[in-house]
Amino acid sequence: MPAILRPIRILGIADLALVMTAAQTTSCPAVVVSAPEAAGFAGVGWFKALIETGHHCFPTVPLTAILDCGDMPGLVLAAWRVGVSDVIFSGDIATRDRLCQAGAASGGVIHDRFATVLDLAGIIARDSACRTWLTGITEGSRDGT
Q1: Residue whose C-alpha is closest to residue 16's, from 41, 52, 42, 43
Q2: Domains of the chain, with CATH numbers?
Q3: What one-character DSSP code corresponds to residue 115?
C-alpha cells in the first residue's frame, strides 16, 4: 500500500522552513506543494532554489517537493530539466501521456492535484497545524485518523 501524501502548500522560504521544522520535530517526511500554477508566475528556478535551501538547512528531513505547472507542458519539461522531479500537470490527457513517457526516462513524476492540502494562509497556530497535519493525529484521536 503506497504511503498517503499529506501535502502542505508553501508560498516561500518561511513556509518551507516551518514545514521542515515540523517534519523534523515529528520525524515525518515533508511533502510540500507550490501554489496552483506557480511554475508560470514564480518560475521553475525559484522553486528549485527554494527546495535546495530546504535540503541544505534540513539535510536529514525527507522532502518531496511538488511544483504545480498548470496546463503548461513546457514548464513540466523545464522543471524536469533543472532537477525538480515532482510536478502537477492539469492539461489534456494526450499531452499528459506524452509527458509521462518523457518523464519515465529521467525520473520525472506527474501528480494529480491533491484533493486535500493544508493551506497555511490564515492559520494562526501554523506550527501546530503543520505537526498535526504531518502526523495525521488530532487531539483525541488514537488511530491517526
Answers
A1: 52
A2: 8-135 (3.20.20.70)
A3: S
